[in-house]
Amino acid sequence: MSETVANEVTQREMIRIIGLFRKNGFKGEYVGFQHVVDEGASYFVVMSDENNGTQGLFKADLLAGTIEFQYMLDENHEVAK
Description:
five-stranded antiparallel beta sheet
């Protein structure tokens, strides 16, 4: 399956994604949300650490209730705005 992304994430989806992250103990600021095309209820989420501001990319699946860390974002890994 392709992991191309589209920027169409509804407010309802964002609330469900944030709920999944909180349920799993994640704390921080949500920087961005992108739907993973061809993967149903999967989303890429960029989170910023509340203590030091580092950013990480995560893949969240609402149907499976899972969150997978992808990588830390730095000057070599940035999310398109």
